[in-house]
Specification:
This protein has 11 helices and 6 strands. It is of the alpha/beta class and 225 residues long. The protein has a 6-stranded parallel β-sheet with strand order 2-1-3-4-5-6, sandwiched between helices. α8 crosses α10, α8 packs across α11 and α10 packs across α11. The chain is globular, with a radius of gyration of 18 Å.
């Protein structure tokens, strides 16, 4: 392991050895600025590895024997909130995605994603950004449009003036995976103003990250068109 100072330091968690070894080879041979510090085959082992190695990003499978990925993410979020978790799974299920984001993951990718998308997701996570495959988020948002209870929640939220119109615009942009600089450019405001809006959104929704804000927005109907 030849770690460079600027490398993104990664831990891989998956119950299949071939997947762990494949990801290690992909990340380290690519020469894209990643170092795989270690790996684990289940959630409990992952917590021990993470505590010892303190990576920047964890690639986390969800369904594993013993402690599963969702429980492990919850523990990581509580004990080491500075460590970003990206879910990498074969399960293309909307409810599972929402549960993962609610637990504290900052991204959700399927294992058939291409290499460059994976690399981009890891870098985004290391920066503190949220990363979702556009087709997954589009499907989730489309589903909320068809949910009557979310439409009612949206009406109630607006009645309570939970978020301002500009805050909703910022939250919708975050849900699309836009970074603060992109949001600022499109809305004609400064990145500092975007950060101020995000702080207000977090406080009003009772969350502490972009991913959890998106989940709360979905659950409360705030991302409806």
């Amino acid at each position: 392991m030849n770690e460079k100072p600027d490398d993104v330091r990664v831990v891989v968690v998956d119950d299949h050895l071939v997947v762990r070894e494949g990801l290690r080879m992909m990340l380290e041979i690519a020469g894209k600025g990643f170092t795989v510090l270690g790996d684990a085959a289940d959630g409990a082992a992952a917590l021990r590895v993470i505590e010892e190695l303190q990576p920047d990003v964890v690639l986390m499978d969800l369904r594993m024997p013993g402690m599963d990925g969702l429980d492990a993410i919850t523990w990581i979020r509580e004990r080491w909130p500075h460590i970003a978790v990206v879910i990498l799974t074969t399960y293309n299920e909307d409810d599972l995605m929402l549960r993962g984001l609610r637990a504290g993951a900052c991204g959700y990718l399927l294992k058939d994603t291409d290499r460059e998308t994976l690399f981009h997701a890891i870098r985004a996570a290391a920066r503190g950004d949220m990363l979702m495959q556009p087709e997954i988020m589009a499907r989730i948002l489309a589903r909320t449009t068809d949910a009557p209870h979310l439409a009612q929640a949206s009406a109630e939220a607006e009645k309570e003036n939970m978020l301002t119109e500009r805050e909703r615009e910022v939250l919708q942009a975050v849900a699309r995976g836009e970074r603060s600089k992109e949001i600022a450019s499109r809305l004609g405001i400064s990145t500092r103003t975007v950060s101020s809006h995000l702080t207000s959104i977090y406080a009003k929704l009772g969350v502490d990250s972009r991913a959890s804000a998106v989940v709360a927005g979905i659950e409360r109907g705030l991302l409806l068109p």
